[in-house]
Amino acid sequence: MSAAPVTRPSLLLRLRDLEDEEAWCEFVRIYTPLVFAHCMGRGLQETDAADVAQEVMRVAARAMPGFQHDSQRGKFRGWLLQTTRHRLYKFLAQSQRAPQATSASTIQRLTDTDPSADEEQRWEAEHRQRLFEWAAEKARPEFQPATWDAFWLTAVESVAVKDAAGQTGISVGAVYIARSRVMARLRELIRTVTDDSYPILES
């Protein structure tokens, strides 16, 4: 594994600076697929979902320079869900391409009300999965193939440690160490891009 990068300020704090191109590119790389997938799951076509996701990113570009972490006002991902819902239903109302049996009054109600518990749970799961995918993509080149495979087999594919050791050609003890090291790195990466922490994978 290569040396860990120098710790940098949280991505959300770095986004206060509109000139921080690296931070904004990372933000778009992480969150555009999340918003896009959410819109696709609500019945939009790919082109329309991409348009809504782009609009949400534009809203974020206007809002993030004034971002202040405040646990009493909720997490960033909650704000992003509300923004996504607003832009999604606004798009549906303007385009008159709402899903079947969704009336204009229903669209307005959905825009004006808080998300349901089910919708929040879906968003939470989507957000969690997207952060894991992003962190895994970033972390994988930092590890030897056997180390990464040992982690992936046991933590993601639920392969028994003994079987993973056989498949990767390393000892059982080394599998445990590999899994621990990779998961620690994933958590470290995720802490740099979100304003709170919660388990991406169980230990």
Describe this structure in words.
With 203 residues, the protein is mainly alpha-helical. The protein has a domain at 1-115: RNA polymerase sigma factor, region 2, helix turn helix motif (Rna Polymerase Sigma Factor, Chain: A). It has helices spanning 11-14, 21-41, 46-63, 76-95, 104-112, 117-139, 145-156, 161-168, 172-191. Helix 2 (21-41) crosses helix 3 (46-63), helix 2 (21-41) packs across helix 6 (117-139) and helix 8 crosses helix 9 (172-191). It starts with 10 loop residues before the first helix and ends in a 12-residue tail after the last helix.
Helix and strand composition category: mainly alpha
Low-confidence stretches: 1-8
DSSP summary: helix tally: 9
Binned, the helix content reads: 55-70%
Annotation, overall tally of beta strands: 0
- Averaging pLDDT over every residue, what do you get? 82
Portion of residues in beta strands equals: under 5%
In CATH, what is the class of the domain at 1-115? Mainly Alpha
CATH architecture of the domain at 1-115: Orthogonal Bundle
End-to-end gap:
20 Å
Order of helices and strands: HHHHHHHHH
What brief labels describe this structure?
203 residues; single chain; Rna Polymerase Sigma Factor, Chain: A; 9 helices; disordered N terminus; mainly alpha
Task: Please write out the topology.
Elements: H1 11-14, H2 21-41, H3 46-63, H4 76-95, H5 104-112, H6 117-139, H7 145-156, H8 161-168, H9 172-191
Summarize the structure.
The chain is mainly α and 203 residues long. The protein has helices spanning 11-14, 21-41, 46-63, 76-95, 104-112, 117-139, 145-156, 161-168, 172-191.
